[in-house]
Amino acid sequence: MPNIISGFSKLSKSEKIEWLLNSYFVDKDSARALVQRYWNSDEKLQKLHDEFIENTITNYYLPLGVAPNFLINDTFYTIPMAIEESSVVAAASKAAKFWLERGGFKAEVISTEKIGQVHFIFKGDFNKLKTFFKHVKPKLISDTASMTQSMERRGGGILDIELRNKSNDLPNYYQLHATFETLDAMGANFINTCLEQFATTFKNEALQYEDFNELEQNITIVMSILSNYVPQCLVRAEVSCKIEDLKSKDIPNPEEFAQKFKQAISIAEIEPYRAVTHNKGIMNGIDAVVLATGNDFRAVEAGVHAYAAKDGSYTSLTHCSIINGIFKFWIEIPLALGTVGGLTSLHPLVKFSLEMLQKPTAKDLMKIVAVAGLAQNFGAVKSLTTTGIQEGHMKMHLMNILNQFEATEDEKVKLVEHFKTNVVTHSSVVEAIKSIRN
Ligand SMILES: CC(C)(COP(=O)([O-])OP(=O)([O-])OC[C@H]1O[C@@H](n2cnc3c(N)ncnc32)[C@H](O)[C@@H]1OP(=O)([O-])[O-])[C@@H](O)C(=O)NCCC(=O)NCCSC(=O)C[C@@](C)(O)CC(=O)[O-]
Ligand SMILES: NC(=O)C1=CN([C@@H]2O[C@H](COP(=O)(O)OP(=O)(O)OC[C@H]3O[C@@H](n4cnc5c(N)ncnc54)[C@H](O)[C@@H]3O)[C@@H](O)[C@H]2O)C=CC1
Questions:
Q1: How far apart are CA 174 and CA 165, in angstroms?
Q2: How far apart are CA 310 and CA 333, in angstroms?
Q3: What EC number(s) are associated with this protein in UniProt (predicted)?
Q4: Residues having CB within 6 Å of any atom of ligand 2
Q5: CA 73 distance to own-chain centroid
Q6: Distance CA 335, CA 38 (A)
Q7: Which ligand lies nearest the alpha carbon of 100?
Q8: Are 299 and 186 in contact (CB under 8 A)?
Q9: Which residue, of 166, 309, 327, 349, is most buried by count of CB atoms within 10 Å of its CB?
């Protein structure tokens, strides 16, 4: 069979590249040169990146931008954002500046509990299982002592373990549902290590439990894994001001703006088609900071969207109120983030980003990320309900279109000037390029 290979992982990096070039590329020399152009000239640094994942052939760049002027709980931040989409950093920066002049963002961490589960099959009497669980619970905790010692010294560790009966949903299915405090770590590895020990202890103790019959003694552990749904690891961020204080260059009529903005949020609260796009705009901000700070954006994405659907229908993550002339806009989201562990002390640009953020604790980072999401959503919804999204988005996207057409520096200067007073659309840019090239 062509292009199928066994033992690929054992090849050296250059052997892997040669195999790829021979299997898929017509112009092998250009493809090889491209892959190599993205290698870092510092061999040690390149090796560090090679070893983050498996079968690495080169680096895949994302731009790291910064959004200055964020005032959060009376501290100033410049927020790092790693993202490929134009206009996101500009929108965040613009929203930061807007709210800076109106008291800034307020943010608070509501809770920090993480969750992990041992999923198991038990065939027998649930009352006996409950009695067994009570008997074994202290041993579940004591058998993890060597793993939890350091976390406990810092003030974290296992918070509780519950037995949950899920056999009405799936025959013979039960869980050990455990909660954890992992402080400045996202906690996946700590939690999974504890869970696997719970599973071993639970299974072994059941085998020796005399009140169980033979079938009951043979508990099947299906899996042990943390949950990325963390509705008790919550952060809230908000902005507010008097309606008249919303007045600005873009908001000539603040009363009308506030009402329309609130309507846009209400639509996202009740209409899932809109809510998904609305929340995508929020994630523009959240993912960019999560990535820049070396956190696991898949975990954050999964948890945030589950939270958006927690009441049975997918809804907006942000909310707005207008009460007694005060405009208030807020977000409440679950975020399991780390400022230690994972990539945080390995990736040099992550360390740079964390230093830029004044070495935050995980709680500080939760607040910063929530604020980035709120600011992003404010920028997008403000544009949507005033000028429309395309004006600003296309203004920022202009450079990408010019690069697609390999515009020279001279052409770029002329075209940027031209589009200060003309509407940017893909076709208008193509026309303008053609006209200066003729
Ligand atoms: C794009 C802007 C900011 C232009 O807005 P503008 O008013 O044309 O900007 P300006 O040139 O007057 O500058 C004002 C400030 O904006 C920022 N800014 C302005 N330009 C830059 C730039 N080049 N680089 C960095 N920052 C920039 C910057 O803070 C600047 O202040 P200054 O630095 O001059 O003191 C505005 O139109 C906007 O906020 N648009 C929203 C864009 C957006 O949300 N993009 C996300 C992608 S679209 C999407 O994926 C999500 C969506 C929209 O579908 C979600 C949803 O439906 O809810
Ligand atoms: N489903 C998921 O989300 C999964 C995610 N992962 C990955 O796991 C990684 C995160 O795991 P972690 O356990 O957070 O990282 P980690 O394994 O690097 O552990 C962090 C360790 O740092 C130590 N530590 C030092 N100072 C601390 C402080 N102030 N607070 C807390 N701990 C402190 C603790 O011993 C802690 O266990 C991420 O890379 C993630 O992508 C792995 C498996 C599954």
A1: 5
A2: 11
A3: 1.1.1.88
A4: 150-151, 154, 182-190, 192, 226, 228, 296, 299, 338, 340-342
A5: 22
A6: 33
A7: 1
A8: yes
A9: 327
Can you list the domains of the chain with their CATH numbers?
8-50 (no CATH), 64-108+235-386 (3.90.770.10), 114-227 (3.30.70.420), 393-437 (no CATH)
Predicted TM-score (pTM) of this structure: 0.94
Tens digit of each residue's pLDDT, the chain (438 residues): 568 999 999 999 999 999 999 999 999 999 999 999 999 999 999 999 999 999 999 999 999 999 999 999 999 999 999 999 999 999 999 999 999 999 999 999 999 999 999 999 999 999 999 999 999 999 999 999 999 999 999 999 999 999 999 999 999 999 999 999 999 999 999 999 999 999 999 999 999 999 999 999 999 999 999 999 999 999 999 999 999 999 999 999 999 999 999 999 999 999 999 999 999 999 999 999 999 999 999 999 999 999 999 999 999 999 999 999 999 999 999 999 999 998 898 999 999 999 999 999 999 999 999 999 999 999 999 999 998 888 887 888 888 899 999 999 999 999 989 988 888 888 999 999 999 988
Q: What distance in angstroms lies between residue 22's CA and the mean position of ligand 2's atoms? A: 39
Q: Which ligand is closest in space to the CA of residue 151?
A: 2
- Ligand 1 pocket, residue 347 CB under 6 Å: no
Q: Rounded to the nearest whole angstrom, what is the distance from the C-alpha of residue 247 to the centroid of ligand 1?
A: 18
ipTM of the complex as predicted: 0.94
Q: Is the CB of 92 under 6 A from ligand 1?
A: no
Cα 374 to averaged position of ligand 2 atoms, centre (Å): 26
Closest C-alpha to 335, from 186, 159, 146, 167? 186
The type of residue at 414 is K
Of 94, 119, 262, 393, catalytic = 393
| CA 344–ligand 2 middle distance (angstroms) | 10
Catalytic residue status for 280: yes
